[in-house]
Design brief:
five-stranded antiparallel beta sheet, 12 strands, 5 helices, 262 residues, seven-stranded mixed beta sheet, alpha+beta
Length: 262
């Protein structure tokens, strides 16, 4: 894809007034937009920036996983990271606020799988990876987002992930970037001053796990009961409510109980 197709100037114009010093950069290829902004932050480059890559050679996901996106750089996946200095009173709901902003910018049918995956019709459509580095007295947040734009073929064994063109056939990666960024910047800045509490009911309306049986990677099993005012997942285990912190676990629906053969 030609880098000049990206709406870098329009995005800059929509954002710079609320984020002084903001810049937009589009690269044809990099290992990972998150890794690049983390390297820059550790080297003291802590200005607000949107870094878009047409192709990532070593995309990263949460919990040390790889993030496999299209390797052609043909716009099949939108991959970007937003880096900015940030000092919220409580970081714990940031990933939920980011996911919520992304789904609100894209489509009413999109849902959030705690803490911040975007799902549609039982398949993952987008992922979010948030990292931070120290930046003087503040911290520098790197908010990485990968969104599947065009449908990928399954490998015959696994269900392919969802793609935005299944819901919005006309969209392409540059247009999605344009739709998402200004509201995302505003959501992050508002989160920094107001926290997650004002977003809680909007999050609950998109909550894929609410009322579902879940198994957490820390071993907790039970029924997901939504989130509290800091974005902590509440799981009813039958013996009480357990609070699950986004930094520690991921959640998958519990397997269905075996069918009664009688
Ligand atoms: C996940 O689902 O586990 C999170 C995936 C995050 C992927 C995005 S793509 C842009 C940014 N750069 C990365 O290496 N990862 C994030």
């Amino acid at each position: 894809m030609n880098v000049t197709r990206w709406p870098a100037e329009a995005i800059w114009e929509a954002v710079f007034a609320v984020l002084p010093g903001f810049s937009v950069e589009v690269l044809p290829e990099i290992d990972s937009t998150n890794s690049e902004l983390m390297r820059r932050a550790r080297a003291g480059q802590c200005e607000p920036v949107l870094l878009v890559a047409e192709r990532q050679t070593a995309g990263r996901g949460r919990l040390g996983r790889d993030w496999q996106s299209d390797t052609q750089g043909d716009g099949g996946t939108l991959t970007f990271s937003l880096g900015l200095p940030l000092q919220p009173a409580d970081w714990s709901g940031l990933s939920l606020a980011v996911g919520l902003s992304v789904v609100q910018s894209l489509h009413p049918e999109l849902q959030l799988k705690w803490p911040n995956d975007v799902w549609w019709q039982g398949r993952k459509l987008a992922g979010i990876l948030i990292e931070t580095a120290s930046a003087g007295t503040q911290r520098y947040a790197v908010i990485g987002v990968g969104i599947n734009i065009t449908p990928r073929k399954g490998d015959g064994l696994r269900t392919p992930p969802a793609a935005l063109q299944e819901l919005l056939p006309e969209v392409d990666a540059p247009e999605v970037l344009h739709r998402v960024i200004a509201p995302l910047v505003q959501a992050v800045l508002t989160f920094a001053t107001e926290g997650f509490a004002p977003l809680r009911s909007a999050y609950q309306a998109r909550d894929l796990l609410a009322g579902q049986a879940v198994v957490c990677t820390d071993g907790t099993q039970g029924t997901a009961m939504g989130v509290d005012t800091s974005g902590v997942l509440l799981v009813d285990t039958g013996a009480g409510t357990v609070r699950i912190n986004s930094a520690e676990v991921s959640v998958r629906p519990a397997p269905a109980p075996p069918l009664n053969p009688s």
